[in-house]
Specification:
single chain; 10 helices; globular; Rossmann fold; six-stranded mixed β-sheet
Length: 258
């Protein structure tokens, strides 16, 4: 499956080589070679304990690899600080979510826009200066379907709408690539459909790598799927390919009966 704007010849935007993470003798991620094609939606899936979240934490350097390298746009970012990685355009959604629950939805997005400017949060600046960010903030709210909630305190949002706000605050940083960690986890069916449509919309002009347990979402959105099991790459390909793979079937069935 190739989305509009992407092709089979698109270059690699993110690559890992031999990515490994050990915790006191336990190998959580082992020799993972991952290549994410530019302008694609790439899903990272696997049974519980497969190492998916650890892999995400390594990519954004919230964890330090035991071994291996991470390349973004051809640049070695291994060992870089999370904030520096974000400035390069690789942003993990939900790590910078609506951290001010009692501020309005609009104010939360405006704060994310301030961060994009590279300055402090500018609480000391005049209301007139901060209001200059409202136009772009409202554009982002419109993009994620939150225009009607602009004046609502973030804490009062329904769960699915909070996830939409988190995506809006991530988009405020103008990422070239977004990492989404279980974007539909814990959602009702209606919210899953809404967030899935939103991911497809915001991915038109950027690359998305997501960890997701809902295989229906994975099937409908993903160009490429990498399956992890016990910290290693078990299979990779489009959904029909990996879903028929006997090793993948065994990994999921085994976890279901564990």
């Amino acid at each position: 499956m190739t989305r509009p704007g992407g092709s089979a010849t698109d270059s690699t935007i993110l690559e890992t080589r031999g990515l490994t993470k050990e915790f006191r003798g336990f190998v959580a991620v082992k020799n993972v070679d991952l290549r994410v094609r530019r302008s694609s939606i790439h899903a990272l899936i696997g049974p519980n304990g497969a190492g998916k979240t650890t892999c995400f934490n390594l990519l954004t350097h919230f964890l330090t690899p035991t071994a291996g390298r991470i390349m973004f746009n051809g640049r070695d970012i291994t060992g870089s600080r999370p904030a520096d990685i974000a400035r390069l355009g690789l942003v993990r959604s939900f790590q910078i979510s609506a951290v001010f629950p009692h501020l309005t939805v609009l104010e939360n997005v405006r704060i994310a826009l301030q961060r994009r400017r590279g300055a402090s949060f500018d609480f000391w600046r005049s209301e007139r200066v901060l209001d200059g960010l409202n136009g772009r903030a409202r554009e982002l709210l419109d993009a994620v379907g939150l225009t009607a909630f602009a004046a609502t305190a973030a804490v009062e949002l329904p769960y699915g709408r909070k996830r939409a706000l988190e995506i809006a605050t991530t988009l405020a940083l103008e990422p070239e690539m977004m990492l989404l960690d279980e974007p539909t986890a814990g959602m009702a069916h209606e919210d899953v459909a809404r967030i899935s449509a939103l991911i497809k919309k915001v991915a038109v002009n950027r690359t998305v790598l997501m960890v997701e347990h809902n295989l229906g979402v994975v099937q409908s959105l993903s160009d490429t799927i990498t399956v992890l099991a016990r910290g290693e790459v078990l299979a990779e390909g489009d959904y029909p390919t990996v879903s028929r793979n006997p090793d993948v079937i065994q990994a999921y069935m085994g976890s279901a009966h564990a």
